[in-house]
Amino acid sequence: MPTIELLGKQIEVDSDGNLKNLNDWNEEIAGEISRLEGIEQLTDRHWIVINFMRKEFMEKGDGPTIRRITKESGVDTKELYALFPKGPAKKAARIAGIPKPKGCI
Question: I want to staple 68 with a disulfide (CB 3.0 to 4.6 A). Which of 2, 41, 64, 101 is the partner?
Fold first, then answer.
């Protein structure tokens, strides 16, 4: 299993680069992953999406699609792509510490 070093610790990731163990995630880890993804600072709007992704995953066992994120989180499509450029659902899931949503290619 591949690993990445975050905050001086080796953390297992899956083949998509998402955390393998959900318990490895915390807000500091999210900040480090976001920087790796090219997002220098997580704003309150990022956290709305990240927390929505985590809540959906915990309740349903899969991350939400872009459509569900934009319909239910209060963040519209244009803003979602601005917050998480180039694949917002995949990038938001990685930062949220959950697996890539099944609906993502």
Answer: 64
What is the crossing angle of helices 88-96 and 27-36, to 10°?
A: 140
pLDDT band with cut points at 50, 70 and 90 for residue 63: very high
Contact criterion met (CB below 8 Å) for 46 and 35: no
**How wide is the angle at C-alpha 30 spanned by C-alphas 8 and 48, nearest 5°?**
170
Please report the pLDDT score of residue 100 as a whole number: 87
104 is catalytic: yes
- Catalytic, out of 4, 22, 48, 104: 104
pTM: 0.93
